Amino acid sequence: MTTETSPPVAKRVPAERNHHGDAVIDEYAWLATKDDPETIAYLTAENDYTETRTAHLAGLRDQLFEETRRRTQETDLSVPTRKDGYWYYTRTVEGQQYGVQCRRAVRDGETEPPVSADGAPLDGEEVLLDGNQLAEGHDFFALGAFDVSPDGRWLAYSTDFSGDERFTLRVKDLTTGELLPDEVPDTFYGTAWSSDASVLFYVTVDDAWRPYRVWRHTIGTPSAQDVVVHQEDDERFWVGVELTRSEKFIVIDVHSKITSEVLVIPAGNPTGLPAVVAPRRQGVEYTVEHHGHRFLILHNDGAEDFALAYTSADTPGDWVPLIEHSPGTRLEAVDAFENHLVVSLRTNGLTGLRVLPIGGGDAYDIDFPEPIYSVGLDANPEYRTGQIRLRYSSLITPDSVYDYDLVTRQMVLRKQKPVLPGPDGRPYDPEEYEQHRDWALADDGTRVPISLVFRKGTPRDGSAPCEIYGYGSYEASMDPWFSVARLSLLDRGVIFAVAHIRGGGELGRRWYEQGKLLAKKNTFTDFVACARHLVKAGWTANDRLVARGASAGGLLMGAVANIAPDAFSGIVAQVPFVDALTSILDPSLPLTVTEWEEWGNPLDDPEVYAYMKSYTPYENVAALDYPAILAVTSLNDTRVLYHEPAKWIARLRATAPQGDYLLKTEMGAGHGGPSGRYDAWREEAFINAWILDRLGRA
């Protein structure tokens, strides 16, 4: 890499932090002042340095972007979903960054979703929202809510133009195309309509940006007259709101990391008081789905991997078992239809769907052909239906949409995401690639699954370069997924691996429990064990292995850089949670208090403080021989604040100055990075070019 320029040097201003008798000097705390011109100047200088240091990759970045663009059908149309008298779908248009939300009336005798040639608009379509028009004049654009009223007349939608996930809520009259004067600023995700569409429920956040209030808005009235329906004062909990598929109840979900409470309001009586389905009990999680005369309860009360029960919808009380707890089979969700229930689950590290017929017939699991795959329900807004829509993909199978008949058990492929010919003009052929499940042995003897994908013929003698991806927090599972951009790596001989480490949910609730709180280090040592295994098994070598992770996976990246810097030739940390102790010590920061049940509370517990201090990346930077590190962040991120990676890179440079560290800050985006699809492709091309350079394949 070029060395014509020197990296920016962050000034060091000693700032002392004291907790549990431990004095800590944070010389880069000043970078947390977002509106300080000196902070912006420093971040801009870092961007300039990163651009200079990667200038030799500009051609490769353009090539990777072009490969993604060429393989993508840019003008496309999703499989329309039926809701009452309309088909709803999204279109994309070549050259445009954002989707166009549309609907078309169902025609007499029409039972199959309509299709169009090459993604063209359907005959007779009605454009509900055009994201490209809404985004005009803005560098960032995201939709929060998109919610059509039960009668099909109103559309509630919300927009964010900065990336901070604070949305302005509006209502559009779909009969006239006009916007109502109703407008509510600073809302969060989640809306729900009353049965007659006269009332809209929505959510707002507190000063720490915790969703804590559910409001009732009467259509046609000023937002100043809106009424708080529920306020959650316990700072560990957050709230959400939705309308059941049956359209009979407004559901208010109240959750902490380990405890739940659900309140309901009849959708036909939106001014009624919320009724508690079951009072919160510490450590008991449950969700509610309405089905006829009953509420379905998915819960972990005496059921580590969850069980399914029901109670009366009129007078909720005792929970009557429907599916008993089965250790190792994690029940994740239940969806109710008039004559069937569909349970989303995972077992043996794979996702699955179980169907329970109502009124006769045995429960059964839907079978899928590949050894490694991901499956889940797609949008299924209709309650009275004998057919469900599901999504399926694998590391080699593009995203596929199926309709499944719950009675005949026939599955019809409606659409598989097109993968157009690459630069060589050859069409994509999954038979040219291979996916594999391997297992690493962790330090404590636990077997940790690894999913791999590579081109057939890739050598198994340690000479192949490899990217290993990990997350390992919040019980989030990194189930196999297909990526068009990843093909550019595979076709250059790179192996892609996913380490399914503890802290995630791939192997059930216990897998998660063994990677949180005072067992969090298992997440990091599992990942290192997976990296070591890939080398030992001949998949790759230490000097040909790049690690990548984002958000809590960025914490993982920082931790493994400290404990096993020799295991990797490069590390990509996106929006990385690398200053975890400082953030978790500050209850005023967004989401901190709600995180204490995931990481522990270092303010009140000296053991938690000492444990977190022993692994949090920023606290443990040392004079080590670190691999090259690329940190990518966003200025308006409200989940992991930009200053965490900025401080981390500054401390790395000061402590281990021989290393190669780059910081790239998106100055107008949030946690998910750039919002437009072309901008997102360019960001991915930037990262993949850096990875290929580290792997000697640039």
The overall strand count is 38
Low confidence ranges: none
Question: What is the straight-line distance between the termini?
Answer: 11 Å
The DSSP helix count reads: 12
Helix content: 10-25%
Instruction: Going across the biggest sheet, name each strand in turn.
Output: 31-32-34-33-35-36-37-38
Broad shape: globular
Structural class: alpha+beta
Which characteristics define this entry?
698 residues; alpha+beta; seven-stranded antiparallel sheet; 12 helices; AB_hydrolase_fold; S9 family peptidase; serine protease; Peptidase_S9A
Please describe what this structure looks like.
InterPro entries: AB_hydrolase_fold, Pept_S9A_N, Peptidase_S9_cat, Peptidase_S9A, Serine_Peptidase_S9A. Belongs to the peptidase S9A family. Keywords: Hydrolase, Protease, Serine protease. With 698 residues, this protein is an alpha+beta fold. Helix 6 packs across helix 7.
Layout of strands and helices, then pairs:
Layout (H helix, E strand, L loop, with lengths): L15 E4 L2 E4 L11 H17 L4 H14 L4 E2 L3 E3 L2 E7 L7 E6 L20 E5 H4 L7 E7 L5 E7 L6 E7 L5 E15 L5 E7 L5 E8 L8 E5 L6 E6 L5 E7 L4 E7 L8 E4 L7 E6 L2 E6 L7 E6 L7 E4 L5 E9 L2 E8 L2 E8 L6 E2 L8 E4 L9 E7 L6 E6 L5 E6 L16 E9 L5 E9 L10 E4 L14 H7 L4 E5 L9 H5 L7 H16 L8 E6 L1 H12 L6 E5 L5 H5 L7 H8 L6 H10 L12 E7 L8 H13 L5 E6 L10 H18 L4
Parallel strand pairs: 33-34, 33-35, 35-36, 36-37, 37-38
Antiparallel strand pairs: 1-2, 3-5, 4-5, 5-6, 6-7, 8-9, 9-10, 10-11, 11-12, 12-13, 13-14, 15-16, 16-17, 17-18, 19-20, 20-21, 21-22, 23-24, 24-25, 25-26, 27-28, 28-29, 29-30, 31-32, 32-34
Helix pairs in contact: 2-12, 6-7
